[in-house]
Amino acid sequence: VEIHGRVIPWDGAVVISACDKSIPAHLMAASRLNIPAMHIPGGSNRIGPKMSHSVLVGDAATRWRRGEDLSREARDFQLSGCPGWGACQFMGTASTMQCLSEALGMALPGSALTPASLFDIRRLARRAGRQIMELSRKGLRPSDIMTPEAFENAIKVHAAIGGSTNALIHLPAIAHELGIKIEPERFDRLNRQIPYLTNIQPSGEFLSELFWYAGGIPRVQMELREVLDLNVVTVSGKTIRENLEQLEKEGFFRRGEGYLANYKVAVEEVIRKIKNSKGYGSIAVLKGNIAPEGAVVKYSAVAPGMLTHEGPARVFNREEDALQAILQGKIQPGSVIVIRYEGPRGSGMPEMLGTTEALVTHPALQNTAIVTDGRFSGATRGPCIGHVSPEAARGGPIALVEDGDQILIDIPSRNLSIVGCQGKKLDDRGVQAILAERQKRWKLPVLQQPPGILRRYAAQAASAMEGAYFTEKESEK
């Protein structure tokens, strides 16, 4: 998108995307070009049979790897796992980034997660075609819309909807293109302040199509209106305040409630009133001697009994090895599975949904956690802590963890630390002394980095806690 925009004299750009990385990529390209631009979200998929959706294939895949005959079930998933166009039916990264595009003001009001099978999405697309001409005439650019105040709004919305942990990579990366820095501490601070309002899988009960019927992002913005900056400008050419008034006047909320009535579900069951919220935020940034720069966990999807956990480390240098150990029953319950060299400079940071699903669907491992410098799917649930920084490939402390080290995960206190080695409890000073000795012996292993452009990326990627974007210089050899 950027390359075409550099050589073709566009008056404006309309980008259309529905899924995890294409949305932030489009917003980054629009930011670099900084010509009038807007985003059309690709909407949400249809709900599958018996309120099913695509992520359920993870459980089936795990059972298949364990030797179960799932030929009939697999055929059903092929035919109806994704029964239409659009993003998956839960608040994964695709749904999250559609919502955040709208929250940033780069998508038309009410457009995120529109059911892709409805005519509404075509009407929105036609409106976008007309509106981009208006933005071009006015000269309204992404830098005028995606301001620091807009990013603050988006982080607050992310906290309220229980969005994907991957937004902690994507939002800072988009902001970086506009010269705006978003520190991970801002996510943590705002998640302590913003009520968690939605009841959407994987952290809740309902699917994303029902979220749109319940009013989607505009309903969330209305609930958060006392803490949002409603005066920021959006691609509609109007402020958020004016957008919400217009949607109310046009009957947007009333029509959605009518669709929701088909499922015999009330709006407040899907998007709660602030007074009925179940707590604050959904994402925490943990720090400690394993993660001096931070790590990320979606605590809204963690069972209460695992918000604090201590267990012995079981260390792997590749995700595939950890997955096989889980499937082969080689993980002791209560362990902390440490997966490293899977960060941006280690392997390019692919998501590890297969491993997290294998863990959370294993009946004997419900008190077992994952800690990694890699990242997760937005569908991930359970005690899975990612983005540990500095990553192992940069010589971060996670590279120095050994089997048997006692790991403390304390989400309420935002702590991720080694608290014991060789069977002995240690204070932080004692742990740091041991890590310093291990650092002297540490050597970077040969990494299985991908070829081509992804190899270039792995050599130049920023820290995950900064946005994992391309930096200007390659890492030292």
What's the quick description here?
The chain is an alpha/beta fold.
Task: Supply Rg.
Answer: 22 Å
Helices, by number, come to 19
Instruction: State the share of residues found in helices, binned by percent.
Output: 25-40%
Query: Using DSSP, what is the number of strands?
Result: 11
Q: Strand content of the residues, in percent?
A: 5-15%
| Largest β sheet strand count, sense and barrel closure | 9 strands, mixed
**In sequence order, what are the helices and strands, one letter per element?**
HEHEHHHHHHHHHHHHHEEEHEHEEEEEHH
| Sheet/helix structural class | alpha/beta
User: Averaging pLDDT over every residue, what do you get?
Assistant: 93
Could you give the distance between the termini? 32 Å
Question: Segments where pLDDT lies below 50 for 5+ residues?
Answer: none
Strand order of the largest sheet: 3-4-8-7-6-5-9-10-11
Shape descriptor reads globular
Describe the structure.
- This protein is 39% helix and 12% strand.
- α5 (93-104) packs antiparallel against α8 (148-161), α8 packs across α10 (184-193) and α16 (319-327) packs parallel to α17.
- The strands form 2 sheets. The protein has a 9-stranded mixed beta sheet with strand order 3-4-8-7-6-5-9-10-11. A two-stranded parallel ribbon has the order 1-2.
- The radius of gyration is 22 Å and the shape is globular.
- The protein has helices spanning 2-7, 22-33, 57-65, 71-80, 93-104, 120-138, 142-145, 148-161, 167-177, 184-193, 208-213, 216-223, 240-250, 252-261, 267-270, 319-327, 353-360, 428-441, 453-460, and strands at 13-17, 37-41, 283-286, 294-298, 308-316, 336-339, 369-372, 384-389, 406-410, 415-421, 424-425.
- With 477 residues, the protein is of the alpha/beta class.
- α16 (319-327) links the parallel β5 (308-316) and β6.
- The two termini are 32 Å apart.
